[in-house]
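User: Sequence recovery, please. Input:
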């Protein structure tokens, strides 16, 4: 059986290795190290009784806050119990019978396509291209039989990205072939300010587009389960809303969402830290003799181990014995047993990991 552990399953790691969960330094979950915004902590503490009431079933105030934050039209916003719920509902609403998934990628897309009884093909991001999407080659395989194209931007686990300009080229081709485009922007908020990669601004122009985002990673609240989708296709959105349970976003999530999206200081500080720390870590990794680091616009790095006889499982095992948890990336499509992924934590923790990686690989 292939050695695979989901990045967020710290409980499983704790049981398997006999390590107290609280002692594990988790570089595998891709969650921001900045912690929950203090504004969110305060609003929960001061409004604990909100749980005694139903949230607004239409979530109008929450959608307005998301719209102001993301630049999306609130009328085009659908909220859900985490981005995973919305991935499931939007793929089911499209009901694709022939999909293309840009890969390596998050396994949830394929799972939901299979649940619809649909077929899919994986468009491989080439290692020789540093996993940067070849737009021309992708366009060649999109035809009138292609129901849906799935793209994560920035991509997990590679960290590579597609610019808004190139997204528009893809969308124009897909409009011609009547292909729905599904973009997962879970990590887009971590990108540098001068890198324009979001598809949100294109949702008004293209009704064959859905952009999905969550709050788990950037706002450090995976347990809150709050996600949102932006799509101007009324037919698709009506189908999704018809499938969703009423009040799928609970009162706490509604309250926290209306607060976190307006916390400009937290947003600015989080992006500033991740961007500067990403550059610092990349500069250090470039000097490693037996590591190849791929350029990223996310809060994580994909590395290839170049040292003969050392696999990703070897690195995983040696690190977990020091309570350091990374992602063994060999289970992603098209990646071998030489690939690992880790996310950016606080500076001292990052330095600890880098020092251990140097010992293992050099």
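Assistant: Recovered sequence (362 residues):
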């Amino acid at each position: 059986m292939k050695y695979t552990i989901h990045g967020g399953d710290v409980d499983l790691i704790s049981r398997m290795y006999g390590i107290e969960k609280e002692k594990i330094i988790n570089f595998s979950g891709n969650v921001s190290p900045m912690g929950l915004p203090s504004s969110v902590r305060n609003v929960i503490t001061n409004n604990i009784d909100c749980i005694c009431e139903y949230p607004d079933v239409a979530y109008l105030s929450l959608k307005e806050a998301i719209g102001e934050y993301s630049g999306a039209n609130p009328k085009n916003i659908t909220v859900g119990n985490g981005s995973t719920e919305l991935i499931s509902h939007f793929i089911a609403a499209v009901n694709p019978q022939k999909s293309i998934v840009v890969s390596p990628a998050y396994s949830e897309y394929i799972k939901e396509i299979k649940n619809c009884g649909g077929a899919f093909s994986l468009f491989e991001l080439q290692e020789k291209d540093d996993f940067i999407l070849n737009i021309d080659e992708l366009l060649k395989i999109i035809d009138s039989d292609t129901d849906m194209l799935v793209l994560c931007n920035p991509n997990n686990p590679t960290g590579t990205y597609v610019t808004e300009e190139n997204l528009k080229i893809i969308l124009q081709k897909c409009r011609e072939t009547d292909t729905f485009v599904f973009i997962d922007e879970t990590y887009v908020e971590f990108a540098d300010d001068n890198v324009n990669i979001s598809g949100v601004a294109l949702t008004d122009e293209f009704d064959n587009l859905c952009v999905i985002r969550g709050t788990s990673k950037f706002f450090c609240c995976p347990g809150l389960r709050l996600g949102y989708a932006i799509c101007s296709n009324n037919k698709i959105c009506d189908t999704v809303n018809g499938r969703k349970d009423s009040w799928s976003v609970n009162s706490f999530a509604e309250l926290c969402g209306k607060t976190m999206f307006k916390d400009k200081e937290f947003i600015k500080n989080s992006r500033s830290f991740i961007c500067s720390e990403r550059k610092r870590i990349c500069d250090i990794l470039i000097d490693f003799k037996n590591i190849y680091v791929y350029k990223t616009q996310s809060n994580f790095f994909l590395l290839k181990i170049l040292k003969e006889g050392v696999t990703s499982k070897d690195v995983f095992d040696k690190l977990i014995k020091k309570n350091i948890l990374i992602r063994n990336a060999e289970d992603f499509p098209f990646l071998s047993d030489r690939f690992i992924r880790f996310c950016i934590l606080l500076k001292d923790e990052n330095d600890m990991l880098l020092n251990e990686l140097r010992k293992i690989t050099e």
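The first strand starts at residue 25 and ends at 26.
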